[in-house]
Amino acid sequence: MAGEPQPDCLFCKIVSGEIPATIVRETETTVAFRDINPQAPTHVLVIPRLHHPDAASLAAAEPAVAADVLREAGNVAADEKITDTGYRIVLNTGAGAGQTVFHAHAHVLGGRGMQWPPG
């Protein structure tokens, strides 16, 4: 059920501490940790502690938490010192868009030039 930890969800297991991660920031509503397969010098995932399968369902059910995810993405960028050079926040939705873990999350990417269009 949305909002509740899912036993088969990798990110729910990171939130609970069952699976280790390199955590860079935590708030009451979010956890930010380094991606294990980075696509840029800075690649941090920001996730809500609550389980929602994608960003749209998170925003519909918990708009304040969705805002927290975006705020924390900006805080990660500041902590990583990539705000001046620019960074990208990516929210993939669905397998066709590259989402592989179906727990809402934002990728914070920076530290190199970002091409457009992406992918």
Present the secondary structure layout.
Elements: H1 10-16, E1 23-26, E2 30-34, E3 42-48, H2 55-61, H3 63-79, E4 87-90, E5 106-110
Antiparallel strand pairs: 1-2, 2-3, 3-5, 4-5
Fill in the keyword field for this structure.
119 residues; alpha+beta
What's a quick, concise take on this entry?
With 119 residues, the chain is of the alpha+beta class. 26% of the residues lie in helices and 21% in strands.
What does this molecule look like?
The structure is a single chain. Strands 1-2-3-5-4 form a 5-stranded antiparallel sheet, with helices on one face. Helix 2 (55-61) packs across helix 3 (63-79). It has helices spanning 10-16, 55-61, 63-79; strands spanning 23-26, 30-34, 42-48, 87-90, 106-110. The chain contains 3 helices and 5 strands; from the N terminus they run H-E-E-E-H-H-E-E. 26% of the residues lie in helices and 21% in strands. The model has no long low-confidence stretch (mean pLDDT 96). The chain starts with 9 loop residues before the first helix and ends in a 9-residue tail after the last strand. The protein is globular. A hairpin with a 3-residue loop joins strand 1 (23-26) and strand 2 (30-34). The protein is of the alpha+beta class and 119 residues long.
